Amino acid sequence: MTLEQALLDAHARHDAPALVGLYTQAADVTADNQAACFYLTQAYVYALEQGDPTATALYDRLSSQGRV
Protein backbone atom coordinates (compact mmCIF):
# COMPACT_ATOMS: atom_id res chain seq x y z
CA MET A 1 0.00 0.00 0.00
CA THR A 2 1.31 3.44 -0.85
CA LEU A 3 1.57 6.22 1.70
CA GLU A 4 -1.17 8.11 -0.14
CA GLN A 5 -3.49 5.11 0.05
CA ALA A 6 -2.67 4.60 3.73
CA LEU A 7 -3.61 8.25 4.40
CA LEU A 8 -6.88 7.89 2.52
CA ASP A 9 -7.71 4.70 4.40
CA ALA A 10 -6.90 6.29 7.77
CA HIS A 11 -9.16 9.23 6.91
CA ALA A 12 -11.95 6.87 5.91
CA ARG A 13 -11.61 5.07 9.27
CA HIS A 14 -11.32 8.36 11.20
CA ASP A 15 -8.12 6.93 12.69
CA ALA A 16 -6.51 10.04 14.19
CA PRO A 17 -3.55 8.22 15.79
CA ALA A 18 -2.65 6.69 12.43
CA LEU A 19 -3.02 10.07 10.73
CA VAL A 20 -0.46 11.65 13.07
CA GLY A 21 2.10 9.02 12.11
CA LEU A 22 1.26 8.94 8.43
CA TYR A 23 1.34 12.72 7.98
CA THR A 24 4.63 12.85 9.88
CA GLN A 25 6.00 10.14 7.62
CA ALA A 26 4.81 12.04 4.55
CA ALA A 27 6.64 15.15 5.80
CA ASP A 28 9.79 13.10 6.34
CA VAL A 29 9.90 11.63 2.84
CA THR A 30 9.05 14.63 0.66
CA ALA A 31 11.76 16.85 -0.76
CA ASP A 32 9.28 19.73 -1.13
CA ASN A 33 9.47 22.00 1.92
CA GLN A 34 6.02 23.48 1.29
CA ALA A 35 4.49 20.01 1.18
CA ALA A 36 6.46 18.93 4.25
CA CYS A 37 5.11 21.87 6.23
CA PHE A 38 1.57 21.08 5.09
CA TYR A 39 1.95 17.47 6.24
CA LEU A 40 3.48 18.56 9.54
CA THR A 41 0.58 20.95 10.11
CA GLN A 42 -1.90 18.14 9.53
CA ALA A 43 0.01 15.83 11.88
CA TYR A 44 0.16 18.60 14.49
CA VAL A 45 -3.59 19.29 14.37
CA TYR A 46 -4.44 15.60 14.76
CA ALA A 47 -1.89 15.27 17.57
CA LEU A 48 -3.40 18.25 19.40
CA GLU A 49 -6.93 16.93 19.00
CA GLN A 50 -6.08 13.71 20.78
CA GLY A 51 -3.49 14.91 23.27
CA ASP A 52 -0.69 13.02 21.53
CA PRO A 53 2.68 13.77 23.16
CA THR A 54 4.31 14.11 19.73
CA ALA A 55 2.51 17.46 19.35
CA THR A 56 5.44 19.22 21.02
CA ALA A 57 7.98 17.81 18.58
CA LEU A 58 5.71 18.60 15.64
CA TYR A 59 5.31 22.16 16.90
CA ASP A 60 9.09 22.47 17.18
CA ARG A 61 9.54 21.26 13.60
CA LEU A 62 6.98 23.76 12.33
CA SER A 63 8.54 26.53 14.39
CA SER A 64 11.97 25.81 12.94
CA GLN A 65 10.44 26.43 9.50
CA GLY A 66 8.84 29.71 10.61
CA ARG A 67 5.34 28.22 10.35
CA VAL A 68 3.91 29.06 13.78
* Percentage of residues in strands: under 5%
Low-confidence stretches: none
The number of helical elements comes to: 4
| Run of helices and strands | HHHH
- Mean of the pLDDT scores? 97
Number of β-strand runs: 0
| Share in helix | over 70%
Q: How large is the radius of gyration?
A: 11 Å
Kindly give the count of domains: 1
The best one-word shape is flat
How far apart lie the N and C ends? Answer: 32 Å
Main structural class: mainly alpha
Largest sheet: none
What is the secondary structure topology, with strand pairs?
Layout: H1 3-13, H2 16-29, H3 33-50, H4 55-64
Helix pairs in contact: 1-2, 2-3, 3-4
What does this structure look like?
The protein has 68 residues and is an all-alpha fold. It has one domain. Helix content is 78%, strand content 0%.
